[in-house]
């Protein structure tokens, strides 16, 4: 379809890639502001006081995971094991640091390593053997959670045992922005640089945009895809440590069944599920929007039982809007090529 | 009741001294079937609560020379428990003690077990009467509700008015719903609690993340809340942690509810929370005796009001017919205080 | 027959001697010779299947020769890897380039070699350089727009810019003008001249001889895998070239049979589709083979698709045996006796993973089925029946159609539609990419079908095929029917003139 | 996104590599033999009478899901449909509606949910993965909103018996005649009917299917409706089996269903799969879990095994393909040398 349209497109019709992307992200930002303002008007406590920092703290984990998942989705893959990896890393990290009496920095290091190893295994299977990522990571979802259960048994770590530094980390903030969210911003900043300003990152866009062509022009598909998975796993590991810090309790069911939430955040953020399109910033904004929406529903006192239905509806609207936007640009192209047709004949 | 318990403890102690090579259970109720195999099925296999109960069960089993094995499904659903019940029945277990994820869903599987001669007690969380021989209740629903209400009154100050929010587990949790209903009933009926104004009930699904979000929403939409009641050992930690994490809330919002002393000690000591619970190992302990009594036909089924169950060191309990068939009650709950909290190892 | 021309003085870049290449039984290159000199635009001509695409792919590093030698600038040319070809200074511009649709043009130009500074990719520099390349080529393209939605002409320009940025010495263009409009072709020609000015060599494959004569210096003509002529453009005429290209008696390849022309079977009136074609009216009678000639991209396949109902159309009507067909409903078209053998058998005509018998039975399921159930046996017997009639060679009915040769695949498509016993058969490029023998057989089948009273609408880019098979010829140009010719009036020149739009006065 | 299975080339006529669905059936037989040696109870009628109801819903939904994945789509919302139709059934029954009518309307809700998915995917043109992630939340949300913190449990005993008990003294649960009927129906539908032929065709190439005059969009909508309808049936059966209608019935079942389908040899890229393989995979799953439970192996090991099998279901065909290709190369070389 697009190919055909392309055949008739003229040079004088310009879509500026930057403005287009900017439009997508500014769109999310607008909705974000709109929802926040509206909710604050009805319930002033939503943003004021500690409301905002709560919101950012709540977003830290899903935001971190969205930043992690984005390069994988851009390369036309998916990682469904992301929530299992987070949960496992949370428990394993707790186990290791409690055992050794370690503090914050080693905790993050351990968590990142656990996640990186999981990501590397996924990466080898998907990028190395070229197995479908949906199936591989669905399998990994089960395996990691099973190992987590088996390893954790009935154990649980609570604030009592966990290092107090780590517990405090989630409470500390700079100008109302929690440290943990600052960490996410740092990771996102690195992600932006990686995905926008290195060949490595650009290759991922190319791979997701046109896989056969990526092979033809000689992109190192294996190493690029592999490291996208390692990155995703690493951030899942870091998110696991955040979990410890925020919720001060961990057992083997930590972050159970949350993988689709992360996918949802990324999709709302304008990252195309079929690869090639989207930005880290968008995904992070998507995560924030998702949490703001959940928070708004709660703060507005929307009946508990309707929240999930509303979430589903919002996601449908988000993907619907994407579709309408792409359709609108198509019809615009059609109109122009018709004008041109008349000019020719 | 109290006196009789004390007496039986005394009797037991003497019996233990007298019959050293014999187990105390044997002397108190001498005819437990040899080689009893008991399966303890929990709601879910990943929380320490059930581990502590299991420690009590193991202790009881040592006393009466039976074996007990722990089965924890890896998802907290009735469907997962059904599979375990089926497997246990086929492995030739004589007794099942189960903390049910669902009141009705397990009934067919449990009925099937009883049909094949397996003794079934429910404990911690009941199933419908048709699905078990007896329910070993940790404390009566009303009793638990009263304990929590008393705690709220102690926070608010007697006779004072105050807004209260409830953070429950899942919307369909049997125990939590019964406790919440009982609290509502008592607030209406008892002048002592008339100052308590429950403004909202939210559900944290026993998930730290959701519980935290819901606590946050609860306080945002109801800034006047002074007490959060969380009748769930997972939710109460999340609520307490949320309050601890916010300087603004310290002292203004107090959390109370049901929680394990080991995981709540920190919050109880710094004044963020109060908590009550029954003695968790004891309920496992008592349940083993109950199921062994029935499996060894020391108590005839169907259990009638007044039938006596041996309770090892805890003393015997008399069955009565509750709203949902025969049950025995372990005893009043324990209120944890900064002083006593460290003495409980569960 | 070959005319050697050694007049050119510049040094030879590519020298190919005795190139031989076969695919299974089909010989694609049969001792072909080819010489490319520095700074020339060299046309590689021939009918479809003459071997020019194969030769091009060898130079692009896609195929490796089975025999013969290639030297590049005096050194042996390393074959068999597109990357190696690129590093030896050879790039290809395909008819439909495969860019990365979500990336900007600047990035597409520099893909895998993005310009960098200390902090990472230097976007502004990259844009500037891409802009400079586009300017150099005389094309106004915004380097910061994304490639999605770009016209094919512009995509080719991006590929050419990429070739320039790689400092490629040799640029191979495989039918680049096939899908372009006249003005776009003109622009491409300007670009080619710029390349020549910069000392690059261009190999240009095209069917449009006017373009060849307008822009090229040198001509190599191929036929049946061999080189039949090498000449300077200034030394030859269009008529010479056509003679070299065709150069064969048409009789045996085009076994046209006598058939009785009956009533109108297919009648199309004023069919228009906004962007594809306008006001198409044509008739096909029972027993008649009507050709729809024209250049690739002139809208012929789109008309066929609209008639059949794959695409919907804006206005006009399609009548089959006097009954109006509803648009956009291929199921009803099939039920009313229409069949379409599409142009791309791998994508459109066949389910490549499925067995031969599944493929042949696709349209016959309703008739084969009892109570809605289809038995393998009935599918197999249908396959055997039609396999025999059309002489399809397949290992067994259960073998995936993927394993068959191109000709047998195409026969499988034909069998699928013949099995429905259609009144009207539309065939779109029926003999593209199949060997001569099968081609002849295919033509015989079409002839027989016409003789038995079927109406056939044949779309073909091969003029000999059109001339050899058709009773009547419609010529399309840029979405419109520009000429109707009878069998006896038609000549290659007349068709070409009409198809290239020269008959209607210069626009 | 082309099928990895197409890469398994087969030049020799006699060369027929094992397909995954055959492997899974062999695995099932091995498991049954091995299990009966390991545990005398395993291969008994009683054990099967207990095991079979547990996989009933998975079997029911995996059937249409197989067709859907073969056609190149996916439905993640099935478990939510199970929940919603169960809730509908329960609530309507509670309101005093005739139980047959209530069950019927429960299934109809499933049909409607399937239609919503189908229309969003085929008519509006949204990706099925994204759409059904959204409707997963939406349908479950409706169930939650409708049911709240209640549950409906007082179904008549004859009905709950249907969900759980066996037929007389046999080991076959009362639901199984229905389930087996559906397996055979879907087997016929998939492998013998025109509808099945067209489903494979669409999965292999949507474009070729359009040129073969198959109405692809309508076909996909029908597949989604079928999936919804079967989820509705499973929803009612689930309610009866656990004699409870709740908002969270069958939560998370979608991954089990998809895992079963993939394990049964259905290619995630469409165009490849058999009903028999999927049915065998479901029984394999159920038997394996039952054996693990009988042996008192931790359920965690079962979870790990599930994941491993899932990865194996794509990895082993790939390895087989590599081996086949290697063999083919050797055969070719031999032929060359012979010349």
TrEMBL record, chain A:
Which Pfam families does the record associate with it?
Answer: BPD_transp_2 (PF02653)
Q: Name one GO cellular component term.
A: plasma membrane
How does the UniProt record describe the way this protein sits in the membrane?
Multi-pass membrane protein
Decide whether keyword Transport is in the record. yes
Q: Which residue spans traverse the membrane?
A: 26-43, 55-75, 82-102, 108-127, 134-152, 174-195, 226-249, 255-274, 281-303
Output one GO MF annotation. transmembrane transporter activity
Where is it located? Cell membrane
Q: Does the keyword Transport apply?
A: yes
Sorted keywords for this record are: Cell inner membrane, Cell membrane, Membrane, Transmembrane, Transmembrane helix, Transport
Indicate where this protein is primarily found: membrane
Q: What is this protein called?
A: Unannotated protein
- Organism equals freshwater metagenome
TrEMBL record, chain B:
Q: Which residues form the Periplasmic binding protein domain?
A: 38-296
Gene Ontology CC annotations of this record:
outer membrane-bounded periplasmic space
Q: Name one Pfam family in it.
A: Peripla_BP_4
Residue ranges spanning the membrane: these are none
Question: What InterPro entries does the annotation carry?
Answer: Bact_Solute-Bind_Prot2, Peripla_BP_I, SBP_2_dom
A Gene Ontology MF term for this entry? carbohydrate binding
Where would you find this protein in the cell?
Cell envelope
Query: Gene3D superfamilies given for it?
Result: 3.40.50.2300
What PANTHER family does this protein's entry cite? ABC-TYPE SUGAR TRANSPORT SYSTEM PERIPLASMIC COMPONENT-LIKE PROTEIN (PTHR30036:SF8), D-XYLOSE-BINDING PERIPLASMIC PROTEIN (PTHR30036)
- The entry's protein name is Unannotated protein
Q: Which organism is it from?
A: freshwater metagenome
UniProtKB/TrEMBL annotation, chain C:
Transmembrane spans: none
Q: Where's the ABC transporter domain?
A: 14-249, 259-503
Q: Which GO terms describe its cellular component?
A: plasma membrane
Where this protein primarily resides, as one coarse class? membrane
Q: What is the lineage of its organism?
A: unclassified sequences, metagenomes, ecological metagenomes
For this protein, the record's InterPro entries field holds: AAA+_ATPase (IPR003593), ABC_carbohydrate_import_ATPase (IPR050107), ABC_transporter-like_ATP-bd (IPR003439), P-loop_NTPase (IPR027417)
Localization in the cell = Cell membrane
What name is this protein filed under? Unannotated protein
Q: Which UniProt keywords apply?
A: ATP-binding, Cell membrane, Membrane, Nucleotide-binding, Repeat, Sugar transport, Translocase, Transport
Automatic annotation (TrEMBL), chain D:
Coarse class of the primary localization is: membrane
Q: Carries keyword Transmembrane helix?
A: yes
Q: Which Pfam families match?
A: BPD_transp_2 (PF02653)
Q: Which UniProt keywords apply?
A: Cell inner membrane, Cell membrane, Membrane, Transmembrane, Transmembrane helix, Transport
A molecular function (GO) term: transmembrane transporter activity
Membrane topology for this entry? Multi-pass membrane protein
The subcellular location is: Cell membrane
The answer to whether the entry has keyword Transmembrane helix is: yes
Residue ranges crossing the lipid bilayer per the database entry: 20-38, 58-87, 99-120, 126-143, 176-195, 221-240, 252-285, 297-320
Name of the molecule in the record: Unannotated protein
